[in-house]
Amino acid sequence: QCQLTEGGCIVAAHIVCTKIAKKVKVSVSTVSFTMKRHSEPEANSDRKRSGRPRATPEADVKFRRVNSLRDRGLTVQQLQAQLNSGHSKQVSASAVKRRLCAVSLTGHVAERKPLLRSQNKTKRLAWTMKRHHWTTEDWKTCIECEAPRPKIYHCILQRHAVPTGMRLVGQGFILQQDNDPKQVQAMPTLR
User: Among 102, 15, 19, 105, which residue's Cα sits nearest to residue 56?
Assistant: First the structure.
């Protein structure tokens, strides 16, 4: 598309279209189209483009934007279901995604959550505060325990933690754990 300044140069020059095209380095059809449009009252302003109307009106886009900002956990599929429930015209998930991207709401990976809940931290602090008078030698007999999942916790405990405690500390070592659900849960049984 020719810029407005180029359009002015083309009309002002009154040269043959081919010479103008070579001078401005555009096609001949662009020159003739620009001259024709420049003679119209609206000059070189952008015209309404033809094409299929959008599936989601602007009001819906604003509503979806506000909705997704209120609840950042909503997925595109959930937003699509909300949008489709109120309208007879169905909107695809990709259309919702494009409209959200247009208003700078792109998907992000959720922020990592802390592995310990506040209750576990409180229990650990209480356990430690009860033993604040311990010496370094006493603390060397304590093994800290953090288990990733309940099913493998008991396996780790039986195969690794207890033998390691016996080997490193000896008989009478203390295994510190904070009664986290995955640590006190009974072994799963197969049916």
Answer: 102
Q: What is the pLDDT of residue 47?
A: 66
pLDDT, one tens digit per residue, over 136-188 is 887 777 655 544 455 566 677 777 777 888 888 888 777 776 666 656 555 44
Give CA–CA dist 2/76, Å, rounded: 39
Q: Are 127 and 139 in contact (CB under 8 A)?
A: no
**Percentage of the chain lying above the pLDDT 90 cut:** 0
Instruction: Give, in degrees to the nearest 5, the angle at Cα 65 between 62 and 70.
Output: 125
Q: Read out DSSP for the chain?
A: ---HHHHHHHHHH---HHHHHHHHTS-HHHHHHHHHHHHSTTTTPPPPPPSPPPSS-HHHHHHHHHHHHH-TT--HHHHHHHHHHT-SS---HHHHHHHHHHTT----PPPPPPSS-HHHHHHHHHHHHHTTT--HHHHHTEEE---S-HHHHHHHIIIIIHHHHHHHT-TT-EEE----HHHHSPPP---
Average of per-residue pLDDT values in the chain: 72
Q: Where in the chain are the domains?
A: 4-39, 58-102, 118-184
CA max distance for the chain: 104
